[in-house]
Fold this sequence. Notes:
The complex is a heterodimer of chains A (249) and B (601). By secondary structure, chain A is of the alpha/beta class. Helix content of chain A is 27%, strand content 27%. In chain A, the strands form two sheets. In chain A, strands 9-8-7-10-6-1-4-5-11 form a nine-stranded mixed β-sheet, sandwiched between helices. The relative contact order of chain A is 0.18. Chain B has 601 residues and is an alpha+beta fold. In chain B, helix 6 (106-119) packs across helix 9 (286-322), helix 11 (379-414) packs across helix 12 and helix 18 runs antiparallel to helix 20. The radius of gyration of chain B is 24 Å and the shape is globular. The chains are: A alpha/beta (249), B alpha+beta (601).
Amino acid sequence: MKILVPVKRVVDYNVKVRVKSDGTGVDIANVKMSMNPFDEIAVEEAVRLKEAGVATEVVAVSAGVAGCQETLRTAMAIGADRGILVETDAELQPLAVAKLLKALVDKEQPQAVILGKQAIDDDANQTGQMLAALLGWPQATFASKVVLAGDKATVTREVDGGLETLEIALPAVITTDLRLNEPRYATLPNIMKAKKKPLDTVKPADLGVDVAPRLKTLKVAEPAKRQAGVKVADVADLVAKLKNEAKVI
Amino acid sequence: MSEYIAPVRDMQFVLKELAGLEQVSQLPGCEEATPDLVDAVLEEAAKFAEGILSPLNVPGDQEGARWHDKQVTMPKGFKEAYGQFVENGWSALACEPEFGGQGLPKVVNACVTEMWKSANHAFSLCPLLTTGAIEALVLAGSDELKQTFLEKMVAGTWTGTMNLTEPNAGSDLAAVRTKAEPQADGSYKIFGQKIFITYGEHDMAENIVHLVLARTPTAPEGVKGISLFVVPKFLVNADGSLGARNDAYCVSIEHKLGIHASPTAVMAFGDHGGAIGYLVGQENRGLEYMFIMMNAARFGVGLEGIADGERAYQRAVTYAKDRIQGTDIGVRGGPKVAIINHPDVRRMLMNMRSQVEAARALAYVVGAAHDTAIHHPDPETKKQNQAFVDLMIPVVKGWSTEMGIEVASTGVQVHGGMGFIEETGAAQHLRDVRISAIYEGTTGIQANDLIGRKMAREGGATIKAVIGLMKQLDGKLAEQSAGKNGEHFVAIRQRFATGVAELEKAATWIVENYGKDVRATSVGAVPFLWLFGIVAGGWQMARAALIAQAKIDGGDSDPFYPTKIVTARFFADHQLSRAPGLASTVVDGAAGALALDESMF
């Protein structure tokens, strides 16, 4: 079984992002970039499936600038067998990425696509769902447990108020939640081997996909500064404020 | 609570721009170390240091290694962390590929070693000692010894130690008394006691391979009669499996000022009939082998000053940004501000930062020169680089560790009264780094090595060549003094030129007077080592500033570059400015030190 794992290069989760002064976006020049943590979980899950003998090949794919090669090498250091980069400097929105991924799925014919439920930069939570729709495949999102057996996947999902377990037919799209697994630290020999694993680069045009943005960003602004709190005299005061000022009860 | 963040950006800058990683990766045998691979290695090592080793630093200090029944139990979590360290292949990074190592250059190893040490100084000593023992075996061991021990040691499943010191043989190894009696089968029986054996006993690995200095019955007196032996904790069967327990036991561990999680063993060899040992190389050449390996170990210990200094700096910055105390100086009744706004706190933080960055730059440049000395095809280039490395090792060891102590002490000072309280964490860095200026040769020993063996013996040839290289930078600094950020470069140029001139003056005096008055030059040895460290560090900071300016002029907007220039400027005004005082101490300092009769003390 072949598994395709899309990975996104995002601003590292430790970095405090700053909004550009002209409000067109966040400043990512000279900022540390790394793999979207949800995608790291996806790579780990795919590699574990390979180690368990369920999957035979794990292919990591990414779309974006040339720097995404590093992200693919990271995926290969964790254990992906090879990488494919769809290289473009254009702004990529979830629909465009889903279309690119569909084209790659058509080419690679994997039995499963495992990817992060969302990316920590735009938090869109759309690519997996859009990809499933474009492919006409079943989808199981927010996975906290994945069992692949035969032509079925049993996926436990985190939903409001608990866990839901679904059985879906393969091929399918699965998106990962935080608690699915804890990604490993890559070993030094694997980091060195990753450098020698094949990494192909294609352009969106090679895949026949128009990646032009369909959405226009009007403005990006810092969240409003939190106001200082007030001390309430007693419970009655608190209830009154919640009722009359905050209007939440 | 301040967590360690590996300074990957500064490491990459030093590696690529100052130490010449690109050239290193073109050396035969170093081809793997391309910049993109090195980036990936640094990123992953940073994750490991931050995520696994750093969280064990404080608990390891509090719990400490514990001795009972000739065994040592490591603090909670250490065994698992070491297991993961080994499993992830970190111990093999710079080792020979022939024995399962990854063969990455020493300069790359320097970066990850700094990370291990920053994250957890006590932990880092186990792999450091193992690496030293591996080098000794690679250098001088027979094929049989290599085959028996190296693969497991490179993998890290067996660890190594260096058994030099005895109660009466510390800095003076000529006094070693441990005996080695030849046996009919070619092995030896070892009898004696060794002290201060780092990781001499622990529960993190299957076997411990002790390298022991001892005398054979026919050995001449003094340093020319010392041989080196391998004494494993468990003997190794012909098939490589572990056999009988050898007669080498840890009879106690020391209670120390710092590095509490690193067990410092008293080792008893031969109390129960003799510990079986195997000769490394030839009889009576043990000290020679040890010294070759000691160069690497001294370099590694030098990194500790940088590593603990970096950690102390990070902690001090976090505290200084967080701690609100007083108003901005000169503002009455204004709002209370974080102490980082106070000029003296700024001065302390910049002192810490600029010294750590200068020492890191110097150490990595020396690391890269070591790779060139090992791998370069041209014999002349090899020789020059080796001479540079030999000259600079005592400086990297002596200056970086003394600097690290000063920086860690300043870190306590930034915290004020809280710095004196253990829970704050600042004190641990000071306690941990204190040993670095002592073990592997005290600062005094480094300084004597520097002025005697490395300078006077060769008439100062190498240091003169290095001073020549330093002077070559003046043209570029002059040019830049007229360019953007000119005021910074004017100051850097002037301070650096003065520093180099003072260094030259002091070096010339030492070379001229060493033979005539070794006592006087020896009083000046440590001040000279400081002087050399400061000027060599200032040299690298000046180079860094020039490169940073070139990047800015080329349109790079990374704030790292202007920050580097300001840091270099600070180093010039606050450290290089000390050069004339140190040089005068070197030249004139002997009279007051040597005049008093011993009875007056």
